[in-house]
Amino acid sequence: MARRSTQTLLAKLLLGTLLPTVVALGGLGFLAHEVARRTLEDELGRRLETAATAVALVVLPEQVRELRAGDEDSLTYANVTRKLALARDRFGVRRVAIVAADLTARGDTDGRWGLGAEAHSESVRKTCATLAVMVTRSTPTQSSETIVSRSAASACSH
């Protein structure tokens, strides 16, 4: 009987010390993961915003306004796509695209959107701007994050 009482007491002591320890360590681990995730997302956002802003400064709004479907052979389009490719390589992003206020593509380093094609990106649709530059970068989880930099003062969000 004393042996069983000792085993029960030992089990209660172990449970009383191990359970709070495991719960506390699990909670701290979760909080550390969330802080690290938020920090990485903030840094990625800053880097993408820098890339998008740089592209918006390099490509002139007049160039973007002049581009229409069928202008793929023009010097303006060649100049814009060259600048986009340079920005993509310089900032180490996967894709750079320019989207006008009417949500038509005006340049894309990936070639997914032809000149004048409707841009099918939720983050572009949520942004109303005279000129939006979209930069996409792969994240460590292989998903992609998109940031839109508005280069005109008349930009608005829905």
**What are the secondary-structure elements, in order, as H or E?**
HHHEEHEEEE
CATH-derived topology: Beta-Lactamase
Output mean pLDDT: 76
Beta-strand fraction estimate? 15-25%
Helix fraction? 40-55%
Number of helices: 4
Overall 3D form? rod-shaped
Radius of gyration: 26 Å
Structural class: alpha+beta
Name the assembly state: single chain
CATH architecture annotation name = 2-Layer Sandwich
* CATH domain class: Alpha Beta
The spatial strand order of the largest sheet comes to 2-1-4-5
- Give the N-terminus to C-terminus distance in angstroms: 73 Å
Number of strands: 6
The count of domains is 1
* Main pleated-sheet profile: 4 strands, antiparallel
Low-confidence residue ranges: 127-131, 136-158
Task: Identify the notable features of this structure and list them briefly.
alpha+beta; Beta-Lactamase; 4-stranded antiparallel β-sheet; two-stranded antiparallel ribbon; rod-shaped
Provide structural commentary.
By secondary structure, the protein is of the alpha+beta class. Helix content is 53%, strand content 18%. The protein has four helices and six strands, in the order αααββαββββ. It has a four-stranded antiparallel β-sheet. Strands 3-6 form a two-stranded antiparallel ribbon. Helix 1 runs antiparallel to helix 3. It is rod-shaped and about 95 Å long.
